[in-house]
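Supplementary Methods, section 5.1.

A reviewer requested that the exact input to the structure prediction be made available. We therefore reproduce it here, unchanged from the version used in the analyses.
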Amino acid sequence: MSAAGGLISFAAYSNLTTMANQLLKGKKGIISGALNNMSIAWKVAERAHEEGAEIVLTNAPIAMRMGEINGLAAAIGNAPIIPADATNEQDIENLFARSMEHFGGKVDFVLHSIGMSPNVRKGKHYTNLNYEWYKQTLDVSAMSLHKMLATAYRLDAIQDWGSVVALTYIAAQRIFPDYNDMADAKSLLESISRSFGYHYGAAKKVRINTISQSPTVTTAGSGVKGFDGFINYSNAMSPLGNADALACADYCIALFSDLTRYVTMQNLFHDGGFSSTGVTQEVVEKFAGKD
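The structure derived from this sequence is encoded token-by-token as follows.
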């Protein structure tokens, strides 16, 4: 609401969300998964920098060759880039060790924005998966979070009251046929965040949450069969419309900040209301044959 009691305009809201308030001043974090400027992780890195944080960027070596991460690093204060295969425990240990060396101490936040399914890429139907690829999906998209957390826990690499956020999707709870084995991976990811959230919280007050984001136009998301039709449906089913990558980045910043110190072990829906909507009038009218 405005001071006069009226609804704030979307333009005014957009201006507010792009204003830096130094919510992360003095904080240091690791952001994984920034491939190009379509990536949510890319937007998170930019917003974290705007809010005063120091950043280390990381991605798998092959993804780094495909992406544009050097340009992002230069734009956010010449942030160091530390290559790491998130399925490789030695790489992860090197990532945390070098990050702490760079920062001169522990990190305050970590973003896990990692996901990949060879079965989706190769067009394999869920009822006829290649199981070696299935294992790879689970390892890259979910077990990698466990490996990162286990390594950070062992090295005591995250500050007390630090924050870890992983990106997920509602296909972990509901069937979206073309999301394929990634749905299973997201279910595992969310379970890991709860389980590790308990242990890390009890030991070091580190909080761990997942954000269940709207379908978002990214390089990875666009690879899902029927994505364009699906994103339009989701938008029609969401009272506020789909949340975009920048809005998701803002939510991540809030979870990294001290404003959410007692939020942990939660799967937080950031989807314009999609997850709580049975049907919208727009969808009813479409099926009733009305324009």
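Confidence is low (pLDDT under 50) at residues 1-14. These observations are discussed further in the main text.
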